[in-house]
Write a structure and sequence with these properties.
358 residues, alpha/beta, FAD/NAD(P)-binding domain, 7-stranded mixed beta sheet, 5-stranded parallel beta sheet, 10 helices
């Protein structure tokens, strides 16, 4: 029996992919998707995979406006985006998984030893035998802790929903230089999800951002969500245990988005039960993306607000470069490094950008 801990997208998609096996999902909450801890922006490529299971599309995105404190530039990449309703997506995936797997909600994974898992449901402890455990139980994975897996670095995120005077309903906005990661707003029918991601105090970062946005934010906050984002893929397989999704750090290190990387991981479950092959094939596809993504994430911590002002000023004159960039594949930036180093004249900024290469 395969015991999947966690009924979110990582767990549900895994159960669907492993439907030829005997699968049990244990979900700690009464239903997946609560509380919401995701902005809900995915690439069109990712949505094509997800829409097989869920009609969760809220809005189509064609590009982004990048802001520094004093500059802005509108860019469109190779691949557009889609805003999805995560509550609906999680519900639909869980329902589909339940067609193939035994499902237990309000059930918490506590421990495991000698292929016996200890669970807690409605105040009662009990045990189940398993052959494999798949830990899809989020950033603070109990499975990862029990089996001694390395943990990724954790960033915190805060997001509010409010009426918002956005530039266009098909453009997200990215705010750089406000934190040691990034901030964003995602348009949604007169409203926007406005969020901040930081390794320190995202609530203070968000407050500063909201003050900077000023009168573009209309009225009061209608919804507040908080969450944690793992940055950095870890070794996610053991002898008969595997981590999936946030528990493994399967997120884009430069944005914090994880659904596409989960979809790619689920594809490799065709090699189950060869866990080492799953890991090898996954990293063969995405290893370079994680490597470049981590370098971009490190840049957030070294670039200063004036550096972002300068870089966005340069990009205004070379916005066509963005059309070859892919939001799911940061490695697409590599072929532009020589061009970027030619057009960036400020030495202090150039030296920081060179870190992408080393």
């Amino acid at each position: 029996m395969i015991l999947i801990v966690g009924g979110g997208p990582a767990g549900s998609l895994s159960a669907i992919a492993l439907r030829k096996f005997d699968v049990t999902i244990v979900e700690e909450h009464q239903s997946p998707g609560f509380p919401v801890q995701c902005a809900g922006l995915v690439s069109e490529r990712c949505y094509r995979e997800l829409r097989r299971f869920s009609d969760c599309k809220l809005n189509k995105i064609r590009g982004a406006v990048f802001f520094s404190k004093n500059e802005s530039v509108e860019l469109e990449g190779r691949c557009g985006g889609v805003v999805v309703e995560r509550k609906v997506l999680d519900r639909d995936l869980f329902a589909k998984a339940s067609e193939f797997a035994n499902v237990m909600v309000k059930t918490k994974f506590l421990n495991a030893r000698k292929k016996i898992a200890e669970l807690l449901s409605y105040g009662k402890r009990f045990e189940v035998e398993y052959d494999f455990i798949l830990g899809a139980d989020g950033v603070y994975s109990r499975v990862a802790k029990v089996f001694g897996f390395e943990r990724p670095k954790i960033y915190s995120a805060v997001q509010v929903t409010s009426r918002f005077d956005y530039f266009s309903d098909d453009l997200v906005e990215i705010y750089l230089g406000f934190s040691d990661f990034l901030c964003y707003s995602i348009p949604l029918d007169g409203f926007a999800k406005i969020g901040a991601i930081s390794s320190k105090n995202p609530m203070q970062v968000l407050k500063r951002l909201l003050r900077w946005l000023g009168k573009r934010v209309k009225g009061c906050v209608l919804e507040l969500n908080v969450g944690a984002i793992p940055i950095g893929i870890v070794n996610f397989v053991g002898d008969n245990v595997m981590l999936m999704g946030d528990s493994a750090g399967m997120v884009k290190p430069y944005t914090g988005g994880g659904l596409y990387y989960i979809v790619k991981a689920v594809e490799k479950l065709k090699h189950f039960p060869n866990l080492k092959m799953i890991r090898r094939e996954y990293l063969r596809d995405l290893g370079m993306e994680y490597k470049i993504g981590m370098r971009i994430a490190r840049l957030y911590g070294v670039l200063k607000p004036e550096d972002y002002d300068y870089m966005i000023g340069v990009l205004k004159e070379h916005s066509d470069l963005a059309r070859e960039l892919d939001m799911d594949k940061p490695s697409t930036i590599l072929k532009f490094i020589p061009t970027i180093l030619k057009i960036v004249k400020r030495r202090s900024v150039m030296m920081k950008l060179i870190s992408l290469l080393v």
